[in-house]
Every structure is written in structure tokens, then in C-alpha cells.
Design goal:
Layout (H helix, E strand, L loop, with lengths): L1 E8 L12 E8 L4 E5 L6 H9 L10 E4 L11 E5 L10 H11 L5 H10 L12 H14 L4 E5 L7 H14 L5 E5 L3 H4 L5 E6 L2 E7 H6 L4 H9 L7 H4 L4
Parallel strand pairs: 3-7, 3-8, 5-6, 6-7
Antiparallel strand pairs: 1-2, 1-4, 8-9
């Protein structure tokens, strides 16, 4: 379970920042749930994801995020991150990267990793020489093959063409056993509409909406409607740009 209490974060000085990225947020995600974090650019969703994954350090205001009762730094072996920026080891080839991961992740499935690398047709060259899309595929292979309890994804569809996105969703669905807790950030609402269990909208540093997808669909709504309603999107705001001056 992921438990977050009074989550506060700012990139400035905590004592003087009047517009923190996250402003005392409480969050609880039970085991096995697939959660989507949505919102406008700069809303704080990626920051929240990185805090959960232990990649950012919170400002000391009594706030904490725990995974199974422990800080993320104490359960690294149970965390897989699939982020848009790609691998933190750009000098390694896919084979070398697999060797490295096998040493650090006790449940790393090397055979599955090799299958994914082959499926994605990744060449045996350093990640820094790969295209953006190839780097993303390498991170997908690495992240899923770690067989961790917690999976965090930030814009997993970025840089992927329509066919690759389709393959990714099939592979992701086939890789999960139902015991993993998966949290993802994406602007591709339609791609995850029927995949996630729960949707959270982050707006101005707060969790402005938190709804089970079954309940949302029962109301006859989808993710786009939820997002627009939550952030107060004005469908006709653009008309002012073309209005004739009187």
C-alpha cells in the first residue's frame, strides 16, 4: 500500500513559497490498484509520482510517503520506474543494462527482458545512441522485467507511434499479475480509459478529484469530461481570440 500524508513540495524555499507544487496532499493507494494521475501541465502530477518513487526528497514539514510502511529508499528492489527521460545509464547496451539490473533486482526476469528487447528490435548499442522511441522501449523492457510490486510510469506513450502504443498496452496488460500497484501520469486519456481502476486529477497542488472508474462510467462520463469539469475548462474561451472588436 502507498500512504502519503501532508505531502508538501516546492522547488523554491518552503518558508516563502506561496504557490507550492504540492500543498499538503493526503493519498492512499491500496495494493493491486492501477491509478492514473491527470491534470494540466505544471499541476504537480509528475512531482507527486517522483515523490512516491523516492526520486525527489520532500521538504521537511512532517510529511511522508510510505510504501508498505517504509520510505521508498528502503524498498528500491520493489520499485520500477518507466519515465520519458529514459535510462539513467546511457552508456550501456541492452545486454549490459540487463546484466546490471539482474544484479540489483532480485526478481528480475532476464528471459522476459531478452524477449522484450528482441520484440522491440533493439540493436546492441549504447542507449545514448538510440532514438527517443528506442530508449522508451528499452525502459519498458527493463521496467516490466523487474517484476516489482510498484510500477511508476511518467508519460509512457510519449515518443511512440500509434502501433507501438497499441503493442505497449497489450504487453503491459499481459505482464501484470494483478498484485502490482501501478501509478501512471499521461495526457493520453483514451489510451488508459478502460485500463486504470481509479483516476486522480491534480490541480493547483491539490487532489481536486479522486474517483473510481466504474463510478465515473456509471455516471455516463469519461476521463476527458472529468478533467474538464475539475479544472474548470471553458469550451468557448478561444472564441475571444476571433471576436470582432466593436
Amino acid at each position: 500500500m502507498i500512504e502519503g500524508k501532508q505531502i508538501f513540495f516546492t522547488y523554491g524555499f518552503a518558508e516563502t513559497d506561496k504557490n507550492p507544487v504540492l500543498n499538503y496532499v493526503d493519498l492512499e493507494i491500496p495494493d493491486g490498484q492501477i491509478v492514473g494521475l491527470f491534470g494540466e501541465n505544471g499541476a504537480g502530477k509528475s512531482t507527486l509520482l517522483r515523490l512516491m518513487a523516492g526520486l525527489l526528497v520532500q521538504k521537511d514539514r512532517g510529511c511522508q510517503i510510505l510504501l508498505d510502511g517504509k520510505p521508498a529508499t528502503q524498498v528500491r528492489g520493489e520499485i520500477a520506474c518507466i519515465f520519458e527521460e529514459g535510462t539513467f545509464l546511457p552508456d550501456l547496451t541492452p545486454k549490459q543494462y540487463g546484466d546490471f539490473l539482474a544484479d540489483f533486482f532480485p526478481k528480475f526476469d532476464r528471459a522476459y527482458y531478452d524477449k522484450l528487447v528482441k520484440f522491440f528490435k533493439l540493436e546492441e548499442k549504447a542507449a545514448k545512441h538510440m532514438s527517443r522511441g528506442q530508449k522508451a522501449k528499452l525502459e519498458i523492457a527493463a521496467g516490466l522485467a523487474k517484476r516489482t510490486k510498484y510500477i511508476f510510469m511518467d508519460e509512457p506513450f510519449l515518443g511512440k507511434d500509434a502501433l507501438t502504443r497499441q503493442d505497449f498496452m497489450k504487453i503491459l496488460s499481459g505482464s501484470l499479475t494483478g498484485e502490482e500497484t501501478l501509478v501512471l501520469v499521461t495526457h493520453e486519456l483514451e489510451a488508459v480509459e478502460t485500463f486504470i481502476d481509479r483516476a486522480i486529477v491534480v490541480h493547483k497542488g491539490k487532489l481536486a478529484a479522486d474517483v473510481e472508474m466504474d463510478d465515473l462510467h456509471h455516471e455516463g462520463k469519461n476521463l476527458m469530461v472529468l478533467l474538464k469539469e475539475t479544472v474548470g475548462y471553458d469550451e468557448n474561451a478561444y472564441r475571444d481570440l476571433f471576436a470582432e472588436e466593436e
